[in-house]
Every structure is written in structure tokens, then in C-alpha cells.
Description:
With 317 residues, the protein is an alpha/beta fold. The chain is built from 8 helices and 13 strands.
Amino acid sequence: MALPNFxxxxxxxxxxxxxxxxxxxxxxxxxxxxxxxxxxxxxxxxRPGGAANxxxxxxxxxxxxxxxxxxxxDVTGAxxxxxxxxxxxxxxxxxxxxxxxxxxxxxxxxxxxxxxRFDEEDITDLNEAQxxxxxxxxxxxxxxxxxxxxxxxxxxxxxxxxxxxKQILLYATKxxxxxxxxxxxKNFFEYQAVDLFKPNLxxxxxxxxxxxxxxxxxxxxxxxxxxxxxNRFKNLMVTLGPHGIFCFTRDGSSFIVxxxxxxxxxxxxxxxxxxxxxxxxxxxxxxxKEVAQLCNRGxxxxxxxxxxxxxxxxxxx
Length: 317
């Protein structure tokens, strides 16, 4: 498969933007104060996370990202905006609100092993006034930009309310813009009739109410048929971790695209990578099998690295 060219695509990413903060060090002793390891920190690092990481992935893949989100008017929010600007990503549509808190995920590593993670966040839904601001900004983008595909990146942090989701899908239909969704449990069934729906296996199984083995094509197909009756999606991709990706197309065909076996260092951010590649390749009219093959390559590349890391076109070779 030839290396794709995504440079002509404008991608609107809507979702929960956050900061991933890392403390890297080494454990050499147990604390005398409590039976816990002492991590001697050697260096620290901050990276854009959530929907901001998707925007970064889109940029590194050569396309033009337009990020729409709402964060806090706080120190973490200022850090996120600064990091995005340093990466050349416009922050015009990243709204700041004094009544929101910018999500901060802090991970502590002992060499290449994650010791603990703690989150600072407020996951309450946007209030009516904040929803109105988001919808207004969304309409402004559609009026002023030629959008080729919309990615909805849901992390259950309160940004994507039922009303906002409905407005996004309504206007996407009106303007005939394909929509790719990486869902979470809270609003799982609000994403109706989208072009490409991309849950992971756990989310997929939770939605239908029973477990399916990742290698059971028959079980996955049956579950996909059941989910389609509820969500009416056009195409489905279920990420299966090391087992690859299950695909269920709009014409009812289904198959598993296996992933190459790798030694994964860190799987965080792999979902962001997959939805980014999937949206671009789908918009370029690659077959769903080819989309999944590209996604497997990209996910393998980022899982070999510690921390949330964006994919590049070179990783897809």
C-alpha cells in the first residue's frame, strides 16, 4: 500500500482536551514512612492529551487540524494552549471558561513502568450557557472553513453533552460532512447514524451487555448487528488491543484485521492514534480493511514509546 497523502484535508476535532504530565524516575528503595516505593524523579514532561493529542496526530500526519473544545481559565489551560501553539496548532476555537477546570493527568514512571496515575478534573456536563457558546463556535467554524471530516473524541469529561452531540450530527448531515466517533460509555447511544464508529472491545461489549472473545469473528459479527440496531452506524471498527481490529461494513461484511505482535511499552494514546488515522484514511476513500491496516501500523508504532505520543506518516510505512 502506498503511503497516503492527507495534506489537502481539513479535520475538525471536537472533544475533551487535556494535559498529560509525566514524572520519570527510578525506584531504588521503599519509603520508611509507609510501605510504598520512592521514585527518584530524573525529569518531567508535559504533552497535549485527549482531543488535543488527536489534533497533534492529525497535524503530524500532514492534514490540517481544527480543534474545538472548552478548557478552564487556569494554569493547566494556559500550558495546553502554549504547547498547541508551539506545535503550530491554532487555538482560536479552544474556548476558556472560568467555571471549568482543565483536566490534568499525572503519571509517575519507574523507568518504563507506570507506578501510579492521578487526575485533577471536573467532569460535570457543560451548563446551558457553555453549551450555547460551543454550538455558536461550531457553527462559526462550519461557516468559515471547508471541513472534510469531523472527529468526535469523547472522554466523558463533560464537554460532549447530549444537546451538543445532537447539534454536531444535525449540522454534519446538513453539510454532508462525514463523522468519525471515538465514544465513551456515558453518551454511547447518542451517536446515531455516524459514518464510522470506533469503540474498543470493552466499550463494545458493555454496550451490548455481554463478553465476546476478541478472536471470535462470529461473536463480534453478532454483537455488531445488535449494536447497529441501536446506533444505526454506517461502519464499525472495534479495536481489539494486541488482536488487531474488527471491522463491520455498511454492506454487512465483517472481518478481523490482525495486528503484528509487538512488545508494547505503553498503550496510552493508542485510541487517539487509531481514530486520527481512521478518519483521514476513511475520508480518502480507502477500504475499511486498508483503514484498519494503517491503524494497526500506527498504533504499533506509538505503543512502543512511553507516554502519549503522536503518530507520523513515517510510522505508517
